[in-house]
Write a structure and sequence with these properties.
Distance between the termini: 41 Å
Oligomer: single chain
CATH architecture: 2-Layer Sandwich
CATH topology: BirA Bifunctional Protein, domain 2
Helix content: 25-40%
Structural class: alpha+beta
Number of domains: 1
Largest sheet: 7 strands, mixed
Strand order of the largest sheet: 1-2-6-10-9-8-7
CATH class: Alpha Beta
Number of strands: 10
Radius of gyration: 17 Å
Shape: globular
Number of helices: 9
Length: 255
């Protein structure tokens, strides 16, 4: 493992974050890329966009909301301002000595997030056997959707922080659930000064990526560039190149 990593980005594009996550994976970092996303609708492998994307293509285009087809697990999700998105960085071969431990990683990630939310004051937070994500009695608080390639984790979790993110859910049928209630940390009575500060508070509880050690030892890595430069930088990593190419082919507005 090269080094521990943690960084936060504001107003960050989902696809740019995914490229950054790939760079960090290719360089063998362990940690978390946290960001407040720009408005985006992401489709998972199990999505049914005809039924789960409720807004028209024209409306989304006018509003500037891209619909991205991705290779993560799960159904349709909304990401936007007022949320914290966390992309874990790591390789399951090194974390578990098992590149196929995808379910275990997802479960430990969501349970770590639940623990963190409980500590900061969310009451009755937990998972549900019949619904994906993290819930309270008011509704869905967070979701997790990942994919794993050659042991490397891509995508991550979305946590609803402020009420400003709630209207965006009207654009979709979250996780394919009709009438899915949505809640936020704000609605749950948790005071959050900033999303960046929240990310720092949650990190130590994400033990699946050694969050406590990452918090103490992380090094900030900056990478803002074009796809051409990304490929040049990670030319020695075929895994990263293939992942970037496959995602660039699928990213785009839904027609």
């Amino acid at each position: 493992m090269k080094s521990k990593f943690f960084a936060y980005r504001s107003n960050y594009a989902y696809e740019q974050a995914l490229k950054f996550q790939g760079i960090l994976n290719a360089e063998e970092y362990l940690g978390l890329l946290a960001f407040e996303p720009q408005e985006t609708i992401t489709l998972g492998r199990a999505s049914d966009p005809e039924n789960e994307v409720l807004a028209s293509t024209e409306f989304l285009r006018e509003r500037g909301v891209p619909v991205l087809s991705t290779d993560r697990g799960g159904k349709t999700l909304y990401q936007g301002p007022g949320q914290l998105v966390g992309f874990p960085v790591g390789n399951l071969k090194r974390i578990y000595n098992d590149a196929r431990a995808v379910k275990r990683f997802s479960e430990e990630l969501i349970l770590g997030l639940a623990h963190a939310c409980a500590v900061i004051g969310v009451k009755g937070v937990g998972t549900r056997a019949d619904y994906p994500g993290l819930w309270t009695n008011r509704g869905m608080l967070a979701s997790v959707g990942i994919t794993v390639k050659d042991g490397y984790v891509f995508h991550g979790f979305t946590l609803n922080v402020f009420q400003t993110c709630v209207p965006g859910y009207s654009l979709i049928q979250p996780n394919g659930l009709e009438g899915c209630p949505i809640t936020t940390l704000e609605q749950e009575g948790v005071r959050v000064e900033s999303i960046e500060g929240l990310a720092t508070r949650l990190l130590p509880y994400l033990s699946v990526i050694q969050g406590e050690d990452v918090f103490r030892e992380s090094k900030t890595v900056s990478y803002e560039s074009t796809y051409g430069n990304l490929v040049s930088t990670v030319s020695r990593s075929q895994m990263a190149i293939e992942h970037f190419r496959s995602n660039l082919e699928t990213f785009g507005n839904r027609e």
